[in-house]
Amino acid sequence: MNNKYQNENGQHDKFNSKMLTIFLRNNKNRFYMAGRSINNLSIPVILLYCLLLPGYSMGQVVPDGTSGETFKKQDSTKLEKHKYAYWNQFESSVSTLKIGMGWMYEYAGYVQDETSKQQVGTLENQFMTRDFRFVLSGKLKILQPREITWKIGVMYDGQTKAWLFRETGVMIKMPELSGHLFVGRTKEGYSMVKVMNGFSIWGMERNMSVDMIPILADGIKYMGFFPKPKIVVNLGAYCNLISESQKFSTFRTQFVSRIAWLPVYKDATKPVLHVGVNYRYGLPYKDSLQVRSRPETNPAPYFVDTKKMHVDNTNSVGGEIYFRSGAFLAGTEFNAHFMSASELGNPVFTGGEAFALYTITGEVRPYLSSLGIFTFLKVKRPVFEGGPGAWDVILRFSKLDLEDGYVYGGSFWRVTPAVQWHLTDMFRINLAYGYGILNKNNTDGTTQFFQARFVFLL
Fold first, then answer.
1. CATH fold label, 103-126+175-457
2. 8 A C-beta contact, residue 88 and residue 440
3. 367: burial class by Cβ within 10 Å (0-12, 13-18, 19+)?
4. CA separation for the pair 429, 455 (Å, rounded)
């Protein structure tokens, strides 16, 4: 193949197939070892090697999965200043290719009173890799004019010390339905903060009230936006036959809907008011379910836990309200999870969060109406170009109550002031302090949390 590509100087280069042949021949042993085991460290070695290859930019913006990522659009007026902005993007006659990477490394420290130590044990301060992942994605060219993108995600989970497949599948643009269809493994589509990419959320972790919702599911999801009534719609149906052994998979069948109205909305960066409702119906594996949550710090044990319960099905109902004007963003979510478990009194577990965020340096978080979420902050003056970066100050309150009927899983609430420093679009440092109280067995235990996180995202 001798296809032409536009390079960073606006000129055209040729990608010679002989170059690819030489690269594959020289690295065939690494690819062989990678194919033997997903746990083999040759996978990150190979992908890091690929990241060092010279790249070619793609000429249009298209979605990269369902969590708010997009392929970068080439801006000829900034090519000289940002000459390496597209070095991880490639093209062929069949598909474009973007190579992505993410890494979260964090510290968690604790100060407990004696009651807390009796409730959950003595917590140890810890450094750990929270999340380390590689992502391959692209846009197919062979089925034009239909826009079809694909994505493959592989993640190392620091908690389980295992390699796992993350969002992986194909997304098809459906203009006749004012949206997209995604087929494969993806976010279910319940709760804005659960749909958003984990690297783009405010704070250290998602709020506890959505921990019962699996992070991923296998099936089909529709995402649409209707401009005239300003309505966002997410619909999903999942049957997790191939993911039964995955840690996240606690349900065998799920049906999910999310509908939001935007009474205030013009474009991605103008003021927006988002009012949404969520509904989810789930059938647990073997009619057994355990609802539990960590205290919004991953190295910690589960603070609230129902233990295994016999549950025929679950119905979850949630509401979400978000408002953003300029650098100010505030929001709240509330969730109620109804358990069909007559011998336990059909318990209902409730929780939610409320937060306010202000970006001191003035950046605005874009809102994507096509998905109904906020996406990554764009740093105006990166540190490595002599600027201050972008600074967020955040205050959050979150709570989860797992005590109802004949279930006594505990109740926990937490207040968290935090600071986020975005050095560039790729590097971020999070600092957070948390004060939380766990009510369990009619006693209140207090824990203070000291958290720090380094984030790298390509």
1. Porin (2.40.160)
2. no
3. buried
4. 6
Rounded Cα distance between 14 and 5, Å, is: 6
Length of the chain: 458
Residue range 3-24: average pLDDT?
38
- Nearest alpha carbon to residue 351 among 364, 369, 335, 328: 335
Sign of CA dihedral 118, 121, 127, 133: negative
Q: How far apart are CA 82 and CA 387, in angstroms?
A: 15
Judged against a pLDDT cut of 70, whether residue 53 lies above it is answered with no
Give the bridge partners for 322, in sequence order. 274, 331
Q: Is the confidence at residue 63, as pLDDT, over 90? A: no
Q: What count of other Cβ atoms lies within 10 Å of the Cβ of residue 245?
A: 6
By the 8 A CB rule, do 197 and 69 touch? yes
Question: What is the residue whose two structure tokens read 């959320």?
Answer: 201
Using an 8 Å Cβ cutoff, are 180 and 63 in contact?
Answer: yes
Res 12: pLDDT: 37
Q: 135-159: string of b/e by CB count within 10 Å (b at 16+)? A: bbbbbbeeeeeebbbbbbbbbbbbe
Q: What confidence score (pLDDT) does residue 46 get?
A: 35
Confidence of residue 150 (pLDDT cuts 50, 70, 90): very high
Identify the residue whose tokens are 């509330």. 334
Q: What is the mean pLDDT of residues 150-157?
A: 94
